[in-house]
Every structure is written in structure tokens, then in C-alpha cells.
Amino acid sequence: MRQPPSSIVWSRRRVLSVATGLIAANLAAPARARAFPDRPIRLIVGNPPGGINDQIMRAAAVDAGKKLGESLIIVNKPGAGGVISFLSLKGSPPDGYTIGVTTPPLWRQPVIEDVDYDPIKDFTYIINIAETVFGIVVPQDSPFKTWADVLAYSKANPGKLSYGAPPGQNQTSHIMVEGMARKEKMQWVPIGYKGSAESIPAMMGGYVAFSMEPMVSISSLVRSGKARLLAVATPTRLKSWPEVPTLKELGYPSIIDSPTGLAGPANMPPDIVKTLHDAFKYAMEQPSLISVLSQSDQSPRYMGSEEYTKYVVRAAKEQRDLLVSYGMAKKK
Q1: CATH architecture type of domain 134-232
Q2: Would you say 130 and 117 are in contact if contact means Cβ atoms under 8 Å apart?
Q3: Where in the chain is the domain with CATH 3.40.190.10?
Q4: pTM here?
Q5: Tens of pLDDT along 140-197?
Q6: What is the enclosing helix (H) or strand (E) of 278?
Q7: If DSSP codes are grouped into helix, strand and coil, which group holds residue 211?
Q8: For residues 111 and 124, what is the distance between their CA atoms, to the nearest angstrom?
Q9: CATH topology of domain 41-131+258-325
């Protein structure tokens, strides 16, 4: 039988060799990364359902999810001044599929107590969305019609006045009222709650004299006539409540900055950070979130990833100095 030419034999061998090499190369190469996201994203909220951050994030998550092409699942992890949620976020893979709400307690708690995280090194800051506005509120049937009534009662009954401070002691509500009490040289008893979902029923039930609450949590009660605002912690009076004085007007110039944003674990890839940032920036511009903020007298406050990171570094130092001066910092 006649043999084929050697050139043809070598050609077939070469073909087989090349094919085998290509198969091996494909098997050894990593699978091509899928576009982010390709599955639902967990969004951790360190407050109970119905609280300020829960309401804001549920509104934002709907439109952000539309932009991302995947749903966002709200996971509520309240307690310990937010530390439970922050630790859960820190311990998650930095792949963008777990993000969480970031508020001042994130950089405040390490000053107050020993926590197993560093607010600067252990997180990737994505975007800031809103500014939380606070107000002092009492039930409609409260004997306190004005802030002056509260002060008069306090002077006549030293040490007997208690107030609601969500989401817990040594947090924004408590720090603001503590500054006011120090100016008045009075002692008021702070009662910490995990969130407004707990503090508002306590206030309405008369268990505390008043509560320092986020406006998003109390606006509907005030509008319905069930509660009354005594003051708001804003630079100027709110358009919705022009008759309600600001704390500054009442002689308390210090207003605590209280932004609400989003972060992920440390070392998130920049492209994933940008994708998430763009989705929530889009959500900020949509009617649903704008409506939630407007109806509750909250303010949108945008900071991009770089600006937000710089803000946290600066705010962490400012909060440390303030807490040390108030005697709230942990003992070294």
C-alpha cells in the first residue's frame, strides 16, 4: 500500500499537536469573568425595618436595581450602635455583592468602645446619598408646647426628665441633646433605643418626655396632628414647618453632621465601585427617592467615592475630639 508523503503526515501531526495544545490551554485558563452584577446584591441596614435608613434604602434600592439589572435585598441587622452591621459588612467578600449603609456610628463607635474594625482601613466608601435631619418631638397631648416649657420643667424637677435617643446612647441624637443639656447646666436622662421604630412608640406612650428623632420617622405623625415639633436641628427653618424654631435660634449653635451613605468591604475593585456608585447616583435622581426625602423633610446630599472617603477621614477626627470633650470616649 502506498504511503502518503511525509509532508502530509507531519502536517497531520502538527494539526493534532496544535489542537491538543489549544484544548489544554482552554482548560488551564480561568473562566471569563461575568459582567457585574449577575445575581442579587445584599444591602445591610443597621436599623430595624421602618427606621430612617431602612426607608431611604428601600426607595433607593428599587431604582438602583433597575440600573444594575439585578435586585437588591435589604438585610436588617440592628443593634450595638450599628456595630453588628458594620462587622457583617467588613467580613463579606469584596466582590460587590454585599454592601451596607454607612452613618456616623461607623467612625464614632471605635472612639466609644473596642470594636474589631478600622473605619478607614476596613471599608470601601461608594457614595453618600442623604443628610439626616433631626427634630425634637413630643406627643400632641404633651404639656410641653414649646422648648421653653421643657426647660422650665427641668429647672423645677432636676434629674427627672428623660428623652428618647435612637439609635442608642453615644449616637447622634444623644450627642446633640447632651450638648444642649451641658449648655443649660442640666442633667437629662437619655434612653437609648435601637431605632425610631422603638423610640417613637415609647415617646407617644409617655415613657419619655420627648425624643430627638430623624424627621423621616416623625413627619407623618406631626402632619396627622398626633405629635408636635418643638425644634429642628437645621441651619434654617424647614419650609414644611416655618413656625418651628431651629436649635440655633434657641441658642444651641452646634449641629451634628449626619450623612447617610453606602460602603463595601475593603479592597473592592474600582470598576465594581463605579458601577454601584453610578446606580445609586441614578437612584438619587429618580422621583421615588426624591419623594421619600421631601415628604420626610430629609435632604439629599451627594458625595462621590473619593469625596466621601476624604469626608470620613476628616469626620472621624472631629468626632473623636467631640466625644473626648464630652467624656464619652473609652478609657485608654
Answers
A1: 3-Layer(aba) Sandwich (3.40)
A2: no
A3: 134-232
A4: 0.77
A5: 999 999 999 999 999 999 999 999 998 788 888 999 999 999 999 999 999 998 888 8
A6: helix 270-284
A7: strand
A8: 20
A9: D-Maltodextrin-Binding Protein; domain 2 (3.40.190)
